[in-house]
Design a protein that fits this description.
heterotetramer; A mainly alpha (about 475); B mainly alpha (about 300); C mainly alpha (about 210); D mainly alpha (about 650); B: about 300 residues; mainly alpha; 11 helices; globular; C: about 210 residues; about 0% strand
């Protein structure tokens, strides 16, 4: 019961608390404490040092363990940075946003943990809808037109998408008609066990609906637009949270249904769908990296690219699946760094347009170097973890039954990399028109510290490659019945 | 072994001694053919003695290059000469692959001569240097297509052995050798800056190659340059004459006789060529050289497919 | 009984399609809410249980009272013009709708061969979903989009009853709550939008692009 | 871990530890002190490494025994030790030059500490790269090398050309890493191991092996800068700080050669077409590399193109080796690979010499355009001499080291023609002539460079030409190496021979390299040197006797010649550049005014890179255009988003229905 209260109830209570207590500092310290507890416990659970007893609708398996860890890791850093972020002299309109910030973020934690831990489709659905609801007002933090539009689009698109996912769930029950599952509850593992009996037509239909519906949240093309707008206009910590964990929450749903569909005849079909979606996302990232002129949108597209890679790994299976799992973890970390540093840049240049940002390396050297390193990390330069996960994915693809995919993927990745590099180096090096050569000195802030820590984490985890992580991922892979 | 070294030393001495006379003979032939009496064939020696005694004048902007270059020139040429079978004797320096050393050591001489010309800092020498570089570049393949092709066919890589390997066996090979000797002659004309590529007698036209490069030298420097140019001429003469090797198999004496007569004959040929041809325009010279190269390639192809 | 209600539901859909007044949408939402509530009540006619009544009651509360009232309030606050602004005229829209409904009915008829399901609620629910999407696609006003979304939700609900999915009540309530909060947030957003952009048109929402 | 206790390894590891330690000294506040101490420690480390490398039976009589350290992650066999030796040998003078080079930037108040860090990483990762024995470790070192080099390259990042050139390098290196991924995946797939020591694949085992060869040829070929893939090189090297460009051309591109040789070791024996491919690509690189070089005015760009040329020459050697292995002729292999390896060492030496020399000049004159230089021999005599030695060596002219390696390659050609008769001699002769042609072009190019840069009068007024002891000493070391290898090649050839015969060339380890009587060269060259010296003394004497004076150059009677009347580089090379105009993309612009009072006339000539300007950029722009056409995805209206959902669902459902 303890873990349930810490994972789900405590954040909820904190949210309520934050509604009544208006002092930002107190809110911050309380939420930080919650975050620490959450992180600690999920770490314990992940390490298998703590055996969980969760009420109905909730359970822990290796996948949810893993994703929960990712969530609480990202969440912890985000909350840690939040206070200093809120203290910044941003637009005056954001005062109201500050009031509800911690409330919403705690509520988000509740919803997201619930979604991660749920073992019941209905529960999952409710929780993930709740995450959307909690994040939408946070997107509207700055209270300006762009963020308002972004919030509207995100809310609307994702609600519709989630509605489709619900249809998918209903179709799933329909597929259970006339089997042992009829009239039973929608527990994942029930379905996984009796997957063979399910009616293939309805199963396929439900996979389509759930996949497409949740794609709006994951950001799989062509349903990525709302995500892009939201991520690029939300305040940086929230953007990091979304890219780092929220997308994975949605991915979890897809993986659940994918897991159910595996033993059936429709498995190949599901794989193909995942691969198509992944290639579309890569293509979209490839196209927009040529055009994008707003560095936060660029980062959002990079998220689309990497989620695309992950789902490609899922679709291809085998070694690529393992790679995808690692990739989910490393990508979440790298995204946090990128968005935090991008936030610093935004603060000191007051603009998200690439054209208006120049000679970052000389004006705010610390942020500049960290941003550069984070870019190198995300584009798979060792010793960043992304390098190792991408290698696994690539090798998996090359020796799967569809090796030609690798050529396409590498082509897209190459040009994404080149264009991203162009944009970022312009920001870092380009001399401004009216700029006198001044070497700004930037004082060492929390964001820098966090970025450095996360970079080290990114590298060290990859190099040390802890046994427990590997074991866990292998057990996930076993669950998914991949043959290695 | 000892005797061979002796022969080598002798042949070097011969080259050093005879080279100016050879040039003098060529000039004499030319004079006679153009209906003049002409200077005696000893004239080069007089010139050299005169230059030897003169004061050295260096251009104001010149550096150590233009002081070292004449010496290097002479030394390298002597070294090259030391690889040649003068009188079909075994030269002093003869080992596998000395053909490459031969080609490249001449390159060394050229390198420093060009530098020395540019060292003066006047656009005048500059032109000469540029041309030297350009034409030398096109002269390089000719050498490899003639001597090199013989060596590739015989599988030998030492000048002496290469000439050694020439026999009068079958007709196609003889034709091959004859054409080779022709293109070597064209090479010699180029390298020694004779007609029709260059005119050794005039200085002050902007059309000169070799003579203009040494324009600003005088005294001992000029002495060295002149002397080395004589040696160069003689080196190429030897390259040419050595094609007569097969006729001199019987005895040393015959060999020497053939060698001397051959060189005298060569002076005739050079004289005639210089009389009847006029100097080409600069932009035609590469074509001339490429023509020689083409002969070499064609020759080799014909030989390999008629063999 | 269910089929009758479903037919009524479909009729309400047709009304939505042909009407050109915003208010009408709200009315339709009310009607649909009532229909769904009745649908949920049907089992209790035979064996009544006080515990089972909670869900239909909440449904009635949310879908018939709260949401329509809220939307009306929004409409009044923002004094939205009463005409919906269609991007294609009704004479084109109606055939499309009918055509797709026919397709859906036929398709579900075929599908019902494989697994037994009561076709009419299924098909009408599904067509409600599609029509909701159509309404969102072919109308300009954002408030109408919200209505379209709600119609979609109703459709899903009907659909759910058709496939007789035994979602636990807690989760059913959760879904209802979620829907309500979504609408609530959308209302707030509409408020903001109408404050930020004067005379809010969908075309104003074109700032975010590459 | 007990393998670390081995006496060799102790020194070996100590070297790396010391090199790493040097980073500590960056914490010193005063930048000058920090620079000094860091580099000193780094030098000590490198020296240790060099000693350990040399002591590890490279120059001793013992056979090279390949040792594994760190559980096979590091393997020291002949090839690795040889390349490690090259890296460390060249790194030392470059690091010495660092002292004086970075002073300049300290004066400019530039933060140089980053640069030093990246330089350090670059050095260490390169050293690890050549001894790595595990594919992933190799890739990590590779990327560390690439990226640290990139980060160090953008020292003057605000300059537009720097951004451009470095970006070329950056993008290209990403292509390389992708190719290498697939390369190693295939190897891993075939052998089931990540360790180099397990890679022994017969070429006949299916279609995948030729693919492996091609991949390595492309991947490592891009790094090495063979002709079709060279386009990044002349972009990147000029804009890098001279220290780095020296390291790039000297060492880094050699890692490409290392890779290709390794691949050969995996696949030995290779079929003959590999050899022909190698030979053709290399001869093209050699000829056009030097020809492009001839057309440049930017000294560092020119040198970069010369790297292409020399890589071509190395490649020719490798090609001969391939042919030898295809026909199972150890002699030919030894000659080919021997020439290639020795030329790798030589090129590392003289190319870094030339880059450092040009770096000194460029830093003093603040320009890289040689048309503005001249007369520097009077300013800095020693630099001029060293540079001259370097240029003679790179043109492959005796008595310096360039000639030795080219001589081996020539001998390889002769040997090949000899061993395999019929049509081989004529083809080999073609290649020989090509090589000779390259030599001629190199002579033309470097006479141009030397004479325009150092000789004549100053074209641009030089206020003060400052050379420090560091410049001279680093250049001196390199020049000395050139001379030593040239005059006394015996031991170096012995090393190369040992490296090759040690597990590289299969079959009986023939001593073809040793059989060449190298003593001849020693004797001839030293006698030349001696006689030049003697004659010089005589000359001095005679000048004492008959007098010597200097007077202005003869200008056809025109009195006041001025420096601008000197022969320029472009006119020096013009005649040669106009021949392959279209390939060199060589443009001339002449403006001569015909008016009564003529205005000053203008002449300018420049050459673009064919591959870059005619293929790479057009392709990229075309792609950009194409992508720009895709509009439907960039919709801003939420209704389209919804429509997308509906459409995609319909499509997927159709797929589902059509699915069997």
């Amino acid at each position: 019961m303890l873990e349930f209260s810490i994972f789900i109830l405590l954040p909820l209570l904190t949210a309520g608390f934050c509604y009544f207590v208006k002092d930002l500092r107190i809110q911050y310290s309380i939420s930080l404490a919650v975050a620490v507890l959450h992180l600690g416990l999920s770490l314990l659970v992940f390490l298998g040092l703590y055996h969980t007893q969760l009420p109905t609708f909730f359970s822990v398996d290796s996948l949810s363990k893993f994703f929960l860890l990712i969530l609480s890791n990202v969440y912890f850093w985000v909350v840690l940075v939040s206070f200093s972020y809120l203290k910044r002299p941003v637009m005056p309109k954001a005062e109201e946003g500050k009031k509800y910030y911690f409330l919403l973020i705690n509520f988000y934690l509740t919803a997201n943990s619930a979604a991660m831990l749920s073992n019941h489709f209905g529960m999952y659905w409710v929780a993930s809808e709740a995450t959307t609801l909690s994040v939408a007002p946070l997107i509207y933090f700055y209270r300006n037109e762009e963020s308002l539009e972004a919030m509207w689009k995100y809310l609307f698109l994702v609600s519709v998408g989630i509605a489709f996912a619900f249809i998918g769930i209903l179709l799933l029950t329909l597929s259970a008609k006339g089997t042992g599952l009829e009239g039973k509850q929608l527990f994942f593992w029930e379905f996984v066990r009796n997957a063979a009996q399910l009616n293939p037509i309805w199963l396929k239909a439900s996979f389509i609906f759930i996949f497409v519906g949740l794609s709006t949240k994951i950001g799989i093309a062509p349903m990525h637009s709302g995500d892009i707008d939201a991520t690029s206009n939300a305040p940086s910590p929230i953007a990091a949270l979304m890219s780092g964990s929220l997308r994975l929450t949605a991915l979890l749903g897809v993986m659940r249904i994918f897991l159910i569909i595996r033993p059936t005849t429709s498995y190949e079909f599901a794989k193909i769908l995942l691969i198509i979606g992944a290639l579309l996302s890569l293509f979209v990232a490839f196209v927009f990296m040529f055009k994008v002129n707003n560095y936060k949108r660029m980062l959002a597209y990079s998220s689309v690219e990497h989620l695309g890679l992950i789902s490609l790994g899922l679709g291809v299976g085998g070694l690529a699946f393992i790679g995808a799992m690692y990739h989910a973890f490393y990508n979440s970390i790298a995204k946090v760094i990128l968005f935090l540093t991008a936030g610093n840049i935004h603060r000191s240049y007051k603009s998200r347009e690439v054209g208006k940002v120049y000679s970052v390396l000389t004006r705010i050297p610390k942020t500049g170097w960290l941003f550069l390193l984070a870019f190198l990390a995300i584009s798979g330069i060792p010793p960043s973890g992304i390098f190792f996960s991408e290698i696994k994915i690539f090798e998996g693809i090359l020796f799967s039954d569809k090796p030609y995919l690798l050529a396409i993927v590498l082509f897209f990745l190459l040009f994404i990399f080149i264009n991203m590099g162009k944009i970022i180096f312009n920001m870092l090096y380009q001399k401004g028109k009216d700029e006198k050569p001044q070497t700004g000195t930037e004082k060492f802030e929390l964001t820098h510290f966090i970025s450095i820590v996360l970079l080290i984490l990114l590298a060290s985890v990859a190099i040390a490659s802890p046994e427990i992580l590997y074991k866990n991922i292998i057990s996930i892979t076993k669950d998914f019945g991949m043959n290695l | 072994m000892g005797i061979e070294i002796l022969q080598g030393i002798i042949s070097i001495i011969v080259i050093l001694g005879v080279a100016p006379m050879f040039a003098g003979m060529v000039n004499k032939q030319k004079a006679i053919l153009t209906g003049r009496i002409g200077a005696p064939i000893w004239q080069p020696y007089y010139d050299l003695r005169r230059l030897f005694k003169k004061e050295t004048i260096n251009a104001a902007s010149s550096s150590f290059i233009s002081r070292i270059s004449p010496i290097l020139n002479l030394v390298t040429l002597i070294t090259a000469a030391a690889m040649l079978p003068v009188g079909f004797w075994k030269p002093l320096i003869s080992f596998n692959g000395d053909i490459i050393l031969f080609a490249y050591i001449l390159g060394l001489a050229r390198f420093f001569q060009i530098l020395a010309a540019m060292d003066i800092g006047s656009s005048f020498e500059g032109m000469g240097a540029a041309r030297e570089a350009t034409f030398a570049l096109f002269a390089e393949p000719i050498f490899f297509f003639t001597i090199g092709s013989i060596s590739f066919i015989s599988g030998l890589t030492s000048l002496y052995d290469i000439y050694h390997s020439i026999q009068l066996t079958n007709i196609s090979y003889e034709v091959f050798i004859v054409i080779c000797s022709i293109s070597v002659f064209m090479l010699a004309v180029t390298e020694c800056s004779r007609m029709p590529v260059d005119d050794p007698n005039t200085h002050l036209e902007l059309t000169m190659i070799h003579e203009v490069m040494i324009l600003d030298n005088s005294g001992f420097d000029l002495f060295l340059y002149q002397y080395s140019s004589y040696i160069k001429l003689f080196i190429y003469a030897v390259l040419e004459i050595s094609f007569f090797y097969p006729f001199s198999k019987q005895s040393y004496l015959l060999g020497i006789i053939i060698f001397i007569s051959g060189s005298v004959g060569l002076t005739f040929v050079l004289g005639i060529v210089e009389t009847i041809t006029s100097r080409y325009r600069m932009k035609n010279i590469p074509q001339y050289l490429l023509f020689a190269t083409a002969i070499g390639i064609l020759n080799l192809l014909i030989y390999t497919f008629t063999k | 009984m269910e089929n009758v209600l479903s037919i009524l539901f479909c009729l309400s859909l047709f009304y939505v399609v042909v009407t050109s007044r915003v208010k009408a949408y709200v009315t339709v939402l009310r009607v649909q809410g009532i229909i769904l509530a009745i649908l949920l009540m049907i089992p209790f006619i035979y064996h009544f249980s006080i515990f089972g009544i909670i869900l239909p009651a909440t449904l009635l509360l949310v879908k018939v009272f709260l949401i329509p009232r809220y939307i009306n309030k929004v409409i009044l606050d923002l004094d939205i013009k009463r005409r919906i602004e269609p991007t294609i005229q009704q004479m084109v829209f109606l055939p499309i709708v009918i055509a797709s409904m026919i397709v859906i009915f036929l398709a579900s008829n075929i599908l019902s061969k494989s697994t037994e399901l009561n076709v009419i609620p299924f098909a009408s629910g599904f067509s409600a979903i599609v029509i909701g999407i159509y309404i969102i696609m072919f109308r300009k006003k954002l408030i109408v989009h919200v209505c379209g979304f709600l119609i979609l939700e109703n459709g899903i609900f009907l659909f759910g009853t058709a496939v007789a999915s035994e979602l636990p009540m807690m989760i059913e309530l959760g879904t209802l709550l979620d829907v309500f909060v979504v609408v609530f947030l959308m209302g707030i957003a509409l408020n903001r939008i109408s404050n930020t952009f004067e005379g809010f048109e969908i075309t104003d929402l074109g700032r975010l692009k590459d | 871990m007990n393998d670390l206790i081995d006496s060799h390894n102790v020194l070996f590891i100590a070297a790396f530890i010391i090199q790493l330690l040097s980073i500590v000294f960056l914490s010193i506040k005063n930048e000058r002190k920090a620079l000094f101490s860091t580099n000193i420690v780094l030098l000590i480390g490198l020296a240790f490494g060099l000693i350990s490398t040399l002591s590890s039976t490279l120059f001793t009589s013992a056979e090279i025994s390949s040792r594994n350290i760190f559980s096979n992650f590091i393997r020291l066999d002949g090839l690795s030790i040889y390349f490690l030796f090259i890296v460390q040998l060249v790194a030392i003078p470059i690091t010495i030059y660092n002292f004086s080079y970075l002073q300049h930037y300290i004066e400019q108040k530039r933060p140089i500490k980053n640069f030093i860090i990246f330089y350090l990483i670059l050095l260490i990762s390169t050293q690890f790269l050549v001894i790595a024995n595990q594919a992933i470790f190799f890739l990590i070192c590779w990327e560390a090398m690439t990226i640290s080099a990139y980060l160090a390259m953008v020292l003057e990042r605000e300059k537009e050309e720097v951004q451009r050139g470095s970006f070329y390098y950056f993008a290209t290196s990403h292509v390389i890493i992708f190719v290498l991924y697939i390369f190693f995946f295939l190897l891993h797939h075939l052998t089931g191991s990540w360790f180099f020591s397990d890679y022994h694949i017969l070429f006949s085992t299916g279609i995948v092996v030729p693919i492996i060869f091609i991949l390595s040829f492309i991947g490592f070929g891009i790094k090495a800068g063979f002709m079709p893939f060279h386009f990044w090189l002349p972009q990147a090297h000029p804009i890098a700080p001279s220290v780095l460009s020296a390291f790039f051309s000297g060492v880094m591109i050699k890692t490409g050669i290392y890779g290709i040789l390794r691949t050969f070791q995996f696949l030995n024996p290779v079929p003959e077409w590999c050899g022909w491919l190698m030979l053709c690509v290399s001869i093209i690189s050699a000829i056009f590399g030097v020809w492009y070089a001839l057309a440049q005015h930017d000294i560092k760009r020119l040198l970069a193109y010369h790297s292409v040329e020399n890589i071509g020459i190395i490649g020719i050697g490798i090609g001969i080796g391939f042919i030898g292995s295809a026909n199972n002729l150890p002699v030919v292999q030894v000659l080919g690979f021997g020439g290639a390896l020795l030329h790798t060492l030589n090129h590392a030496i003289f190319k870094s010499l030339l880059f450092i020399g040009s770096g000194v000049v460029c830093q003093n004159l603040e320009t890289r355009n040689i048309e503005l230089m001249g007369g520097l021999v009077h300013r800095a005599k020693y630099i001029a001499i060293f540079f001259l030695i370097g240029s003679v060596a790179i043109s492959g002219i005796p008595p310096f080291n360039g000639f030795i390696s080219e001589f081996i390659i020539y001998t390889g050609f002769f040997k090949t023609a000899n061993e395999l008769k019929n049509y081989y001699p004529i083809i080999m002769l073609m290649f020989v002539v090509g090589l000779a042609f390259v030599g001629g072009l190199a002579v033309a190019c470097f006479t141009k460079v030397n004479s325009i840069m150092f000789l004549g009068n100053e074209r641009k007024e030089v206020k003060h030409f400052h050379t420090s002891i560091y410049d001279n000493s680093s250049l001196g070391i390199l020049a000395l190496l050139c001379v030593v290898i040239g005059f006394y090649p015996q031991p170096f050839v012995g090393v190369v021979n040992k490296v090759i015969t040690n597990g590289f060339v299969k079959g009986n380890s023939s001593s073809a390299l040793i059989n060449i009587d190298w003593l001849y060269f020693t004797v001839i060259f030293s006698s030349i040197a001696l006689s030049v010296f003697v004659l010089y003394l005589i000359k001095i004497k005679l000048e004492k006797k008959y007098g010597r004076r200097t007077s202005p150059a003869w200008g056809c009677g025109y009195e006041n010649l001025n420096p601008r009347m000197q022969y320029t580089a472009s006119s020096f090379a013009d005649e040669l550049n106009t021949i392959p105009k279209s390939v060199l993309v060589y443009h001339k612009k002449v403006e001569i005014s015909e008016t009564a009072f003529p205005l000053p006339s203008k002449f300018e000539s420049h050459s673009k890179d064919f591959i870059d300007s005619k293929i790479i950029l057009p392709l990229f722009n075309f792609l950009k255009l194409l992508v720009g056409k895709i509009e439907f995805l960039s919709q801003t209206d939420v209704r389209y988003y919804i429509a997308f959902i509906l459409i995609i669902i319909t499509i997927y459902s159709l797929i589902a229905f059509l699915w069997v």
